[in-house]
Amino acid sequence: MYIKKSIELSGRTLTIETGKLAKQAHGSALVRYGDTMVLVTVVASEDPTEQRDFMPLTVEYREKMFSAGKIPGGFIKREGRPSEKEILSARLIDRPIRPLFPDNFFYETQIIASVLSMDRENDADVLAGLGASAALMLSDIPFNGPIATVRVGKINGEYVINPTIKQIEEADLELVVAGSKDSIMMVEGEAREVPESDLLSAINKAHEAIRELVKLQQEMAGELNKPKREIPPFELPEGLEEKVHALGDERIKEAVRIQEKSERRKALKAVKEDIVA
Questions:
Q1: pLDDT tens by residue, 17-72
Q2: CB 189 within 8 A of CB 173
Q3: Degrees to nearest 5, angle at CA 48 with 132 and 180
């Protein structure tokens, strides 16, 4: 089923579409802003990973040379390893999304954001964060979203959502903000010396745009109406949780009050070893 939704942000059209590309993935979203386009795909294994008690999530963000109409120069004509920018962008995607999977979701999951086109005006990193949330919302993978990621800059006294690369160079304040409809989940950025009120105003401005993008994803998910897969509940042996609390609560409270770092870590390690034993 092909779905396409658009919204105006800072005088430019942002579009999310699904249903044409990457149909074999569990979920996919193509995000376009100006002439910058990012395809985000998400897949998850059908069976849980054995003997793991954490979410095995891998996020990859790649800006290939072809997206800017170039080929790698020099003797080697292949793409190299991810750049520092690509690694940091992958982390921007990962941080706000990882906590939103169910606690008992131990299925190998992979999110890949591929920049298909770069217009050298609109950065693709925040579009990839938005696309990752949209792809998960449009998949059968359980996900407590949606969320959205935007960049906000203060330029000549005005707050601008998703400023161009040239505008960012002139900004007094630049933040990357991720959040849901009701809360802020991540803030990262840099600024010249600015008052706290400017920082709060920028976050509030970003949250207004986030709410609009969240609503857009909810509309798409509602139209697609794809059921989420059932995840069997993870059950602890009866009485185990109460026993762990009884053995560790008071000792952990005492340990975290230790000011010297190495001693505090030794105390916490001792508590863990005693509980496991």
A1: 999 999 999 999 999 999 999 999 999 999 888 777 788 999 999 998 888 888 77
A2: yes
A3: 30
CB 206 within 8 A of CB 177: yes
Rounded Cα distance between 23 and 165, Å, is 32
Contact 26, 42 (CB under 8 A): yes
**Residue 59: strand, helix, or coil:** strand
Whole-angstrom distance, CA of residue 70 vs CA of residue 241: 57
Output the DSSP codes for 156-194: TTEEEES--HHHHHT-SEEEEEEE-SS-EEEEEEEESS-
Query: pLDDT tens-digit profile of 117-156?
Result: 999 899 999 999 999 999 999 999 999 989 999 999 999 9
Structure tokens at 35: 């002439």
Rounded to the nearest angstrom, the gap between the alpha carbon of residue 237 and the centroid of all alpha carbons in its chain is 34
pTM: 0.84
CA 58, 139, 41, 211: dihedral to nearest 10 degrees? -90
